[in-house]
């Protein structure tokens, strides 16, 4: 059973999220890995005919906007009004505000909109904030076309444990984990094997997996290449798909398809 009693609305955390994650290298790494991964499974993404794309929990809208700029048909949804407004501001700046269809509501009620099926459904860093995370993947499977892909990222419980071990926070590991209500650390970090089980239950297969921030978040003293942002991103990209490093990622990225 999830520790979250309700789905987390980021209205009170949107500014902190923008500043702490996307205001620095953390966000740059996240976007670089996800974009690279999408190009691996959709190599013609930047040149092909428009795809129908659904972004669930779209946050600040960077991916929705980037995909809309390529001419894809994008539908964005987020529970947070603050997040949606930030995403719309970015879309306006990039000239694609009217090229994206916008929804601000619980993802569970989107089924009432008659949206149809999609070539790509994205849900990044949402599942760990839900009261019923075990339902998300099966719910999203219904939006996939027969050849559609699900791009899913989730907060990795193993990374949380490892980081606290490195930092000597042994007391945090003695009892049941509880995140501060104002923290960007979710109350429901997930085991990759648990998420994989939900993927299979939903009739999907995981075609691709990678880690996001496989070493950056563990660094306590910056030295050498750590001081070069481009070098950090390059090394993160390189090791994000290598065993065993990818499973140390703060987030794990699965790309899934409908099982044959």
Kindly report the CATH topology.
Answer: Rossmann fold
Strand neighbour order, sheet with most strands: 3-2-1-4-5-7-6
CATH superfamily: Vaccinia Virus protein VP39
Strand content bin: 15-25%
Helix content: 25-40%
Radius of gyration: 18 Å
For the secondary structure, the number of strands is 7
User: Structural class of the secondary structure composition?
Assistant: alpha/beta
Describe the structure.
The protein is of the alpha/beta class and 260 residues long. The protein has a single domain, classed as Rossmann fold. It is 33% helix and 19% strand. It is built from 9 helices and 7 strands, in the order H-H-E-H-E-H-E-E-H-E-H-H-H-E-H-E. A 7-stranded mixed sheet has the order 3-2-1-4-5-7-6, sandwiched between helices. Strand 4 (118-124), helix 5 and strand 5 form a beta-alpha-beta unit. Helix 2 packs across helix 9 (229-239). The protein is globular and about 50 Å long. The two termini are 30 Å apart. 37% of the residues are buried.
